[in-house]
Recover the amino acids of this structure.
DNA sequence: AATGAATGAGAATTCATTCAT
DNA sequence: GATGAATGAATTCTCATTCAT
């Protein structure tokens, strides 16, 4: 599905100055990506916006894709961290509480860096290597949900925890994503109630 | 958010030869889209792959986006047609039956032209006119679900049909999409049962 | 010795207009190559000097190397033609006459398009695929000389015609090349006498 | 004819460590020159391949050309040394002996570092300072031959020693170069006999 | 209707070289 | 002496689009 693109970071900055350069480049990437979209992004524009030379950019990123990949990877770490942490915090809470807290965590995670999150989620599937990244997230998330389900055999009514985890994680992600980031945004409190309801009725009651 | 894009088809082919040309162009577009991705698609390549001249291509499609839009539009019509038809056929069926039939319709729709469906959903940039196209589909689907809900005030337990339709349509689409097209495909019968369960418990019981 | 470079011509011009474009591009290449040398040649400069767009250039030549390769191939045909013709015309002339005429032909061939000849011969070895071209010439030339030798077993004193042809063709080419094109050019008449002497004494007397 | 190039070595390494650095850089240059060719050589690549920083490279070589010039100069010294030494050793030998020894010396010189020799002769652009370097060699060699000829007015039959030296040195170099380094290499003993014959008949008998 | 030659703005990318540390 | 981050002009090359034939 698309040719292989070079997304591997080119070299690690070792000096502090270099780290700052990489930082400033990624920030400019995020800004332009949010403003103009992926297609209108160009390495020259990014470099100019970051106030560094193109040469410096290419010292660290071999291509436009690599730029976006690095940004996505960073973002993924933050978002997944927030959600997994919430799941971990509620391994032993009663389902009603756990589910509400986790759903709220997901809604919050989508609320952070909305513009960046939106543009990344839209563009990522098109960027070869990044498909893997998004799949990692899904597998990761579904895995966590499954583990959560398997810990409470009596509290849930589900036959196959793997399938249920798969269904639930995709359904929740999509509903929250659309509800928070879509053009027709939904009031977060309502969204939370409804999604919790969706999940609770499917898994528990 | 990008320059103004012309996506309206330029003219309708009237002669049989012209229809064949359009057909061959769209097929080449689909093929290249799958092979190289949207970014590496080019009108020249499409024309070459289709065995026609660029000039001929521009006779029918005013831009690269129009090419992809036409392909997507075509596919949308088939898929949405199948689903809306299923919804229409079950306006008055009992919820259990209606929901199962509709879900089955959605699963079937995703099964048709799997490769094309996957490519379109991954490769279409979610900006410009193409973005609108995609959002239209979502709004359309949610609208149909909402209408369906509003027809049966006593059969469903939902407070706000608009919100419920929104949640449900996104959740179902995502679960089915991932279940049918994802790397870890799920047995269609199991998928059907689980998605029906998800919807039924949320909307009805 | 050096990476493989794309030197194959990209597409054949079919319309008269296209043929003219190719012609004008090659002429500009020759001009710039003679004036600035290979390293200072660039596709943009060539296009500008030819009065066509870069795009047109790339329609026919995939790289800078291809440009030079096409030029070299053309030049080779002319030069080799002139020399082989001279050899053919004197298959049956007495050695003294034949050798003088052939040597004169080679000197004349080097005299045509001196600047182009000089720059091509200097740059060709560096351009991957073109090594073959130059070797072709040598093999070709040595072959013709050998055939010439083998036709007159009694007139020549040579043991192994293949070796003698090899030695003679390289020696003559180098002496004439340096004598005609070198910074310290030699009077053509003197050059002719001396080279004829060199060859005649080696092969015949 | 190209910008002014600085090819003079920047400074002499004085410490042992520095000498080793220079050595390692030149070796990397030779390796890359053989692998990628002159055009694809870059100071950054050379530094990386040599395991030193670009900064260090520029400490000793002020430009890319200087790098190649140093390599060529080194090789030239070895090769020319061997040949001139042989010429000097036979100033007073009878022509048959002298010529045979000198030709043998030239063949041996081409046999040393064949790969490097081939690469240098093919890849060095014949422009700018590097051109001069090459011409120096030719002039030097022709000069030595001329001096040798002028010392023995009675032993040789040549009218103009300068012209004869010019012809002979180019002819011999070309024949030996092709015979030793060409794709169709010739047995060194045969090569020696034939080249000696060529020279002897032209100059002496 | 169809062709395909031509365009040229603009994107990606390299690389010799400098200089602060 | 050595390092390697930074530079940016220059170059290669693509591609959507037009238009004469």
């Amino acid at each position: 599905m698309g040719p292989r693109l070079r997304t591997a970071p080119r070299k690690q900055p070792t000096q502090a100055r270099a780290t700052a350069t990489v930082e400033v480049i990624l920030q400019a990437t995020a800004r332009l990506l949010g403003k103009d979209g992926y297609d209108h992004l160009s390495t020259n524009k990014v470099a100019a916006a970051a106030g560094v030379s193109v040469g410096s950019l290419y010292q660290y990123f071999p291509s436009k894709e690599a730029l976006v990949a690095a940004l996505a990877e960073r973002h993924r770490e933050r978002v997944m961290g927030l959600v997994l942490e919430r799941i971990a915090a509620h391994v032993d809470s009663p389902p009603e509480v756990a589910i509400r807290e986790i759903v709220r965590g997901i809604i919050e995670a989508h609320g952070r860096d909305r513009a960046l999150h939106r543009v990344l989620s839209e563009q990522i599937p098109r960027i070869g290597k990044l498909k893997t990244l998004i799949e990692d997230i899904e597998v990761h998330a579904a895995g966590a949900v499954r583990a959560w389900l398997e810990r409470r055999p009596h509290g849930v009514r589900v036959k196959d925890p793997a399938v249920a985890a798969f269904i639930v994680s995709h359904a929740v992600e999509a509903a929250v994503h659309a509800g928070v980031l879509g053009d027709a945004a939904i009031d977060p409190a309502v969204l939370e109630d409804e999604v919790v309801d969706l999940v609770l009725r499917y898994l528990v009651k």
Remarks:
- The two ends of chain C are 41 Å apart (CA to CA).
- The first helix of chain C runs from residue 16 to 36.
